[in-house]
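Protein 1 of 2
SEQ + STRUCT:
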Amino acid sequence: MMKYLFDSKEIINAGLFAITFVVYAENGLFFAFFLPGDYLLFLTGVFVGSGLLHYSIGTVLLYLFVAAVVGSLTGFVFGRYFGSTLEHRKDNWYFKRKHLEATKDLFDKYGSQALIISRFLPYIRTFAPILAGITKMNYPKYLLLNVAGAAIWVVSLVGGGYWFGIEFPWIINYVHYVILFFLFITTFTVIKGYFNMRKK
């Protein structure tokens, strides 16, 4: 697994369908919260821009946008009908209550806009649609925010990576630094959220 995450060739060889599945799972399946999201989108853009992933940027954006929307919709439906089981579930290797609590804090602070903001927050991105389902958010409103958030998230990260891949193709030789940068941001976000919860 670690080889897959840190070796650019492994990611390229996995192909667009594998990347699409990872994006789908990380956006809606609570036990998949640990999967890469942000840096996988960015690196996919880099690979397309540098010509190492042989798909058009339009095709990639469409696949990953649909995966993000359908993944979050899956989480919403799960939360709406089965979410109560998560609220009483004990911590284990595939579920951490702290992620659900951090998501609740985000909703308390930003309201429904949290669905868009959460797209850029690791772990919370996975639990936000589930919590929206638990609270039985109005479906048309949720769908609108889901589509908007997915579009902003996918286009900004994949598009940014695509631009880097075209303008600085040598960046492909420093993929591990890109991954470490995103992992640092992820770790910082989680630690900050943890201490904010401790203060409360």
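Protein 2 of 2
SEQ + STRUCT:
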Amino acid sequence: RDEAKARMLAAVSSMWLVPGLVGPVLASFITAQFSWRAVPWCLAGLLVLAAPLCLHPLRRVPRPNTAATQKRILWPTLGLMVAFTALIEGLRRTDALGLPLALAGLVGLVWTARPLFPRGMWRMQPGLPSALVLRGFVAFALMGQGSFVTLALREVHKLPLAIVGISISIGGLSWTIGAWTQAYLEKRYGPPSRLARIRYGLMVLTCGMTLTSLGMIKVLPYPVIFAGGLIAGIGMGIAYNSNSLYAMNSVPEGQAGQLSSQLANIEVLMTAVAAGLTWPRSWFEDMRAGLGRSRDR
């Protein structure tokens, strides 16, 4: 059963393969011919076409008789969305309202997350809490860095869009390779090797991200960025999916749906926080400019 779960996770990761190879090239072409704003509108059209394929099967799923549980989770979920929005907006702003808004969002996140996530997350308690924390930090690191790789290739290294898109394709391809590698290791060595796969996968991920960072800031030539993305993707595929297996085996069978939402929530939250944390540079630059104007007076 664990072996089947590993293959299932690898198959899900494989769905990124074709979009990862075709999507960046197509997005680069659309941006060059029209504007980058046209790319999200094209994606919105695809969502409209795909929605019936998702909604129709859900109509056949029996509704669980857990109205009280749904109500208990609904309001914290809505509160989490509001607090999350406040935090990101506060991190983005550089005026006097930015810091109070970010602090209010942070307090709101801590308060609303309590009923949505298991106890012991802040202490990184072994089992599911530590698996969720690890998922969040991995998303914070790799996907946060990924938000700026294409920007660095375009603005710092002045590469054409077609080459910039290759960096995204490499990440999708190598992630799939890593996912199937962990499925093979799960089959060969079984669950006892799972924690070791997470550790070694994170080591490979760190090496790849380090190479990518050195290429982004021109310490090393820009081809290192692509090599680092390849290495990091393989490490991510191994560690990410092995961690998901570890989390799945930390909850009862009937709580798989709740686990899926917890993993998705912590991943999206930490990815957005990583992007929002670019605010200090702008904030300090504005503050420094303000102090300079004060001295001139």
